[in-house]
Amino acid sequence: MSNGKEKIAIIGAGLGGAVAGALLQHAGFDVNVYEQAPAFSRLGAGIHMGPNVLKIFERIGVDKKVIGISSTPSHWFSRDGITGEYTARVPLEGYGQTYCTVHRGDLQAIQCDALQPGTLHFGKKLARLDDSGTDVLIEFEDGTSIRADIVIGADGINSRVRETLLGQEKPNYSGWVGHRALISSDKLKKYDLTFEDCVKWWGPDRHMMVYYTTARRDEYYYVTGVPHPAWEFDSAFVDSSRDEMAAAFEGYHPIIQALIESTDGVTKWPLFNRNPLPLWSKGRLVLLGDACHPMKPHMAQGAAMAIEDAAMLTRCLQETGVNDFRTAFGLYETNRRDRATRVQSVSNANTFLLKQEDPAWVYGYDIYAAPLKSETAA
């Protein structure tokens, strides 16, 4: 329903923002994406992309590319972190698409390549937004400015767009940190141990999620969740150490010890969250992903929720057109709030797939299958 004249600006080219841009462009909208970073690099982090996300990737023609560079585990194993006993063996097949674990930087590159040439702008840190009622003035810290008919805030947990809607409010430190490390698979060959494709090791008060990040299986990645009383640093993350990891997982299974022994570099990240927002949009501004509903990463569904948001927002704008953005934003929130809130709650509880259960409500979900619920019916 776009006439090619209304302009959409997306703030943030992370996993949700880039897919939102590609989806909206495929639907015929005039979209530009603005990212504060000067460029993206291949940072050492892995990510899960479940079948619920791959169904969305089909719409922008990148699902086969993502599958081609990913590890595609057949099961999610949950194991006791000390004894190694299996507490769950959850099949990941049969949900209408492939389950992928992949390097975040490799995935980001594919998503950005899906955007139309010249529509992704780096080095654009948001300084100010002014919703005049007829359009939005967007000013960047480099002194440039643009105008758009609507603005999508996909700029993460410290979203400046969210701040414009709701005022300044720091996210809540959750009392947890995550350690991240990428290990060359060659380092693991000396051990007479089996390093499974996708396994979560559970302790009484901590865990370690481990998986391959490439189709070649040459990188093995782990991310932890460990209680930590306070985040004492101003930076987004800090370097950790093999000694710190050994102390955090003392007495844990030999496979965990092998991973720690094989760790060259490891970083430590604070896990933040926010209380559910009272609104997802205001005027010509709308939020998605961590800008809207940040969650602990314990279901490996945080980025998936941002990408589902992007797909639903695109559906709603196709239904109404940009000129009727208020109806579109209301439909979007009506059709996303319950699912995003449920995933946020289960993620924060950190119980997902600890025991044998059916994850069809997560992985079997197809955002294009259900009819849109009207605001009045919600």
TrEMBL record:
<keyword id="KW-0732">Signal</keyword>
<dbReference type="InterPro" id="IPR036188">
    <property type="entry name" value="FAD/NAD-bd_sf"/>
</dbReference>
<keyword id="KW-0285">Flavoprotein</keyword>
<protein>
    <recommendedName>
        <fullName>6-hydroxynicotinate 3-monooxygenase</fullName>
        <ecNumber>1.14.13.114</ecNumber>
    </recommendedName>
</protein>
<keyword id="KW-0560">Oxidoreductase</keyword>
<keyword id="KW-0058">Aromatic hydrocarbons catabolism</keyword>
<dbReference type="GO" id="GO:0043731">
    <property type="term" value="F:6-hydroxynicotinate 3-monooxygenase activity"/>
</dbReference>
<dbReference type="GO" id="GO:1901848">
    <property type="term" value="P:nicotinate catabolic process"/>
</dbReference>
<comment type="subunit">
    <text>Monomer.</text>
</comment>
<feature type="domain" description="FAD-binding">
    <location>
        <begin position="7"/>
        <end position="343"/>
    </location>
</feature>
<keyword id="KW-0503">Monooxygenase</keyword>
<dbReference type="GO" id="GO:0071949">
    <property type="term" value="F:FAD binding"/>
</dbReference>
<keyword id="KW-0520">NAD</keyword>
<keyword id="KW-0274">FAD</keyword>
<comment type="similarity">
    <text>Belongs to the 6-hydroxynicotinate 3-monooxygenase family.</text>
</comment>
<dbReference type="InterPro" id="IPR002938">
    <property type="entry name" value="FAD-bd"/>
</dbReference>
<dbReference type="InterPro" id="IPR050493">
    <property type="entry name" value="FAD-dep_Monooxygenase_BioMet"/>
</dbReference>
<dbReference type="Pfam" id="PF01494">
    <property type="entry name" value="FAD_binding_3"/>
</dbReference>
